[in-house]
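Q: How would the structure tokens look for this protein?
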Amino acid sequence: MGYFANGSEGDAYEARWCRRCVHDPHEGESCPVLDAHQVFNYAQHDDGRLQEVLSLLIPRHPNGGNARCRLFIEAAP
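A: Here is the predicted structure in token form.
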């Protein structure tokens, strides 16, 4: 499951992946994957089905931490 322990961890993830993605939100828009993780980040610990859904979007890396979003597509430079 994608999990962000705090806002700084979420910001670091966004800088590493989201800002380089073609789906990076522009003015007035938001990313549904990030929105779902922000809204349900803590609730997923008590709900196995919610955890499964969020894990489909941002899986955990085998070495710990969050892996790349499964919807990530590198934006052109």
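The mean pLDDT is 86.

Helices lie at 7-16, 32-40, 48-57.

Upvote if useful.
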